[in-house]
């Protein structure tokens, strides 16, 4: 990285910290929610009991030798971290491993009749089917009368703020303050002009590294539909997760559900849905589920094939809080550390669209940081009431 000094990796062991509360409180709450949502049998209840005890009081255990991803996880860190407390290893790693272990406990990886059953599906479906989703789709009718640029900007902001729709975040009931009540600007960095300038040529390929399903994925898809329809991009690649992750992260099944929701909606929403459906059919919109999308590692460690994909894109948009942590490195950066420096390793132009839901932040100007601290102490970092659009060309 240029001349930027590095910063300590965030662990989960600092008393009173947000990461520690996620490990000690959010994860047990998620186990309970999943347990209550399915008529699991005794094996799964026992496995969930064991996971609850292990992830709060125990030491990290490697995956069973016959697990399909045993070797993958050994290379990603179980070889180094087995035997350590969950709190004493990088927080990015322990969170990610928690979701892997939760899927194992409910039989997701099989063999058996629960193989492939997404333990978060009831929450995702409830959100997608909620009347609020219709309320969010209704303004698309009025948007049709606006210029393509205004539409693009509205849809970009829809995609950005859609990132508040994170079920893990809501299940643990933090960040109840609404964006409208925030005393300092909601957007703490806005490089949207630079973002659009990167998509001003012809033949552009846009990679969108998605985050949550439902009410975040829908606006992501609307943005892609508009850009494809306007020929602002020739091709889009939507990176989703190969398996359920962080409660609401989008999988291929969630993309299919979202497309059905759009095509079945009244008004303009259905037109967007049909645009996407045909773009999937002719290859202008592709969906990728790369294993590294669920890796417990920063993007700086991405494998060569993924690096080549991002290198070939005109722009990669990285959505959400977790992806931001992975993009800049889950470290206690000074907030004014340049975003361009911490993303210098990324193989092509990259943009982050994220609402702020964890401590990591880079690329703020000193005045903005001071105003945020004066108004809110450090709550702005995790409350989900602020957002950013940061771009490295
Ligand atoms: O990536 P997303 O959906 O925007 O947010 C994920 C999140 O809720 O999970 C982590 C804590 O568990 C934080 O990074 C963040 O608050």
TrEMBL record:
Residue span(s) of domain Damage-control phosphatase ARMT1-like metal-binding: 23-368
InterPro entries listed in its UniProt record: ARMT-1-like_metal-bd_sf, ARMT1, ARMT1-like_metal-bd
Keyword Cytoplasm: no
Cofactor(s) needed: Mn(2+)
Record flagged with keyword Oxidoreductase: no
Similarity comment text for this entry: Belongs to the damage-control phosphatase family. Sugar phosphate phosphatase III subfamily.
Protein name: Damage-control phosphatase ARMT1 family protein
Source species of the chain: Streptomyces prunicolor
């Amino acid at each position: 990285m240029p001349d930027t000094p590095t910063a300590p990796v965030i662990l989960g062991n600092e008393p009173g910290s947000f990461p520690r509360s996620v490990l000690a409180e959010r994860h047990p709450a998620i186990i309970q929610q999943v347990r209550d949502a399915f008529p699991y049998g005794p094996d799964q209840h026992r496995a969930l009991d064991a996971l609850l005890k292990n992830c709060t009081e125990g030491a990290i255990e490697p995956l069973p030798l016959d697990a399909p991803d045993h070797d993958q996880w050994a290379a990603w860190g179980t070889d180094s971290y087995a035997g350590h407390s969950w709190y004493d290893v990088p927080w990015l790693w322990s969170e990610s491993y928690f979701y892997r272990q939760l899927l194992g406990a409910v039989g997701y990886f099989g063999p058996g009749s629960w193989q492939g059953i997404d333990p978060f599906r009831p929450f995702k479906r409830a959100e997608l089917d909620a009347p609020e989703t219709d309320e969010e789709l209704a303004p698309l009718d009025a948007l049709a009368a606006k210029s393509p640029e205004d539409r693009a900007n509205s849809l970009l902001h829809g995609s950005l703020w859609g990132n508040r729709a994170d079920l893990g975040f809501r299940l643990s009931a933090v960040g109840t303050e609404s964006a409208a009540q925030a005393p300092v600007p909601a957007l703490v960095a806005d490089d949207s002009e630079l973002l659009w300038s990167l998509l001003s040529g012809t033949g552009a390929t846009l990679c969108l590294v998605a985050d949550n399903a439902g009410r975040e994925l829908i606006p992501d898809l609307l943005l892609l539909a508009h850009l494809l329809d306007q020929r602002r991009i020739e091709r889009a690649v939507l990176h989703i997760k190969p398996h359920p992750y962080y409660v609401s992260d989008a999988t291929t099944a969630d993309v299919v559900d979202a497309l059905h929701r759009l095509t079945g909606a009244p008004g303009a929403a259905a037109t967007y849905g049909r645009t996407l459906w045909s773009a999937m059919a002719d290859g202008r919109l592709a969906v990728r589920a790369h294993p590294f999308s669920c890796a417990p590692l920063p993007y700086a460690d991405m494998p060569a094939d993924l690096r080549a994909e991002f290198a070939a894109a005109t722009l990669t948009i990285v959505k959400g809080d977790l992806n931001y942590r992975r993009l800049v490195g889950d470290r206690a950066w000074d907030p004014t550390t340049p975003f361009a420096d911490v993303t210098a390793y990324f193989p092509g132009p990259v943009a982050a669209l994220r609402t702020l839901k964890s401590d990591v932040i880079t690329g703020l100007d000193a005045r903005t940081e001071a105003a945020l601290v004066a108004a809110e102490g450090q709550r702005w970092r995790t409350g989900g009431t602020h957002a950013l659009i940061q771009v490295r060309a």
